[in-house]
Amino acid sequence: MALIAAIDPVLTTGWAKGDAGWNLKEKLGVDFNETTADGRFTLKEGECMGACGDAPVMLMNNKRMCSFMLPEEIDKLLAECMADASMSGAASDSRAEAR
What we know:
- This protein is 37% helix and 18% strand.
- It is α+β, with helices and mostly antiparallel strands.
- The longest helix has 28 residues, at 71-98.
């Protein structure tokens, strides 16, 4: 599963150490245009998403826009994505065993 997180360039919301991009880089251990070692996450810097009032904004796989992505929200989203990936892996493992 490659999860592409595109980060709107309008990121600053007064966080002490940085912004959504900085937070994701720290959590995932990758920089922009890099993929995590397990291949699950790729971090991209996106173009303006026209949602300054909802900043910081992330676009997941060009389908799901996430607004107000403060550190706590990013943590929740990453946990959700990891759980989804685990569920997907378990489902494909059980299908392989059934063959």
